[in-house]
Design brief:
CATH superfamily of the largest domain: CoaB-like
Radius of gyration: 24 Å
Number of domains: 2
Bound molecules: flavin mononucleotide
Strand order of the largest sheet: 12-11-8-13-16-17-19-20
Oligomer: single chain
Helix content: 25-40%
CATH class of the largest domain: Alpha Beta
Structural class: alpha/beta
CATH architecture of the largest domain: 3-Layer(aba) Sandwich
Largest sheet: 8 strands, mixed
Number of strands: 21
Number of helices: 14
Shape: elongated
Strand content: 15-25%
CATH topology of the largest domain: Rossmann fold
Amino acid sequence: MNGKRILLIIGGGIAAYKSCELVRVLRRRGASVRCVVTASGQKFVTPMTLAALSEDKVYTDLFDLKDEAEMGHIQLSRQADLVVVAPATADLMAKMAAGIADDLATTLLLATDKPVLVAPAMNVRMWDHPATRRNVATLRADGLTVLNPDEGPMACGEFGPGRLPDPEAIADAIAAQLDPAAKPLAGKHALVTAGPTHEPIDPVRVIANRSSGLQGFAIAEALAKAGARVTLVAGPVSLPTPAGVHRVDVETAAQMAAAVDAALPADIAVMVAAVADWRVDAAPAKLKKEAGPPQLNWQKNPDILATLCASAQRPGLVIGFAAETENAADQGAAKRVRKGCDWIVANDVSQDPMGGAQNRVHLIHADGTENWDRMDKTQVAQMLVQRISDALCGN
Ligand SMILES: Cc1cc2nc3c(=O)[nH]c(=O)nc-3n(C[C@H](O)[C@H](O)[C@H](O)COP(=O)(O)O)c2cc1C
């Protein structure tokens, strides 16, 4: 980040205190930081603190005539390599999405010709509110980078997505934005499914499979490290969410299909989940042993991979997974054609039982099949993400 100039806009959220640390982290990495604080932002952090940490004047007022004479608001908005909004409140993002310019921060954001990176932080209900979802989608469609907030306990006592990512993680995202080669998938949205599905038989029993979710979670993590914005639709597993990944938990195949549809559009889809092919009509009350073996009425589940491939919103690169116990490579090649996806990663689960730390896979594409050595699932993930970067970015 040596010599890069960051214009940091601080909104009026409880996480504004973290912007002080962000100034320090960015300066330690060699960038210069100029701060703008909104009126609400000043309720949480003082211009004095930010001036001391940035060793620069802090800007607060659009109608400061002295500044207009020395440094106009248009000039301020252009004298940076990157504009960063952290924390971005729901209010600030709503104004940005609507093109409102009623104070210094929003006027700068409308006047700038520089890339803008937005780090939202707010209560989980505010983040989940349809208005905020719409505003985030608008900002992303306008070409701004909007980071996903972290998930966890919040200052307000609730739990969920909405926390400002750590200053080091925001600085990583800033570095990626400033040097796109370091993060080949920056600006791409990747959708990953992982884990099994559970199909209820009655309120206490399910039809499940042995998928652990390890491979899908490793791929989501590797995609995020390569700079992609990642949505991970996870079946019932108890794995931690990889850093920077937006996770949507589901239980059944029908819920997974709906979550995949809701996450579109995406540039990349990696469908790793072991989705149950069949479900049964679930009994409303617990089935009793005394009634004898239950009659299960089987129904076909939605084919998530085939549906995605046939969708009008089909991602540019769709990768399916095939777990087979016989002729994995041949069956995988047939599955690639049948489903209409670009690549299939086929693994022989008779050799490497599901749930283990290692995988031996075949990567099947239109030009043939690559047989990869047995390796850790994290290494499979890294190699696959390298292939994805090569395919999308020609690196
Ligand atoms: C104690 C307190 C904490 C707040 N925290 C947040 C927050 O984390 N995120 C948010 O979007 N709004 C938060 N708000 C509401 C904003 O301060 C309010 O919407 C304000 O108008 C935002 O101003 P801005 O556009 O300058 O950021 C908080 C308000 C209070 C009183």
